[in-house]
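Narrative of activities, Objective 1.

The group set out to show that a structural description can be obtained from nothing but a protein's sequence at a throughput compatible with the screening campaign. Below is one input-output pair from the validation batch, recorded exactly as produced.
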Amino acid sequence: TNQASMEVIIFYAYFATSIAPVIEEIVFRMAFLLVPIAIKEKFWKNEEKSFLVVLQGKDRLDNIDMILLGISSSAFGLAHYYGGWEFNKVFQATFLGLFLGYVALRGGIFSSITFHWTWNILSTLVVIIHVIGAKYQPLILLIIGFLYLIVIGLGVIALITSALRFFTKSHV
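Output recorded for this entry:
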């Protein structure tokens, strides 16, 4: 029935915008990426405050950090595939996982949770607007698309800034 399908949409919207970002970031960014890096920093580099990586991120990334980023991002993409996504969307999830992992590496777990939350809210709004067929659907989708561009633009600016900071420090 229409009521049952609306209840399913509401449930998925709630899950995607409130629960999934936190759970996925704890599993894929914290457990698969930040905690292993903190352990590596503690035992290989003898860093006393290594576990601050989880909350604050790192200034300098090494090869092992990048390998763990690739593993956690691939696991994120595959989890979405096994969660029911079509195979072609796995690449989108993997790419998003790379970006979220980089955000976590540079700014800590709360940065990646915040970005993931924002991304899922925008995605969920697009789906809801499409399903309910709102009167001003094209205008609303245009506004949401503009918000997507802002979020992506801020992410690109953050990546460029981090890359410049990384390369500037490495040549000093």
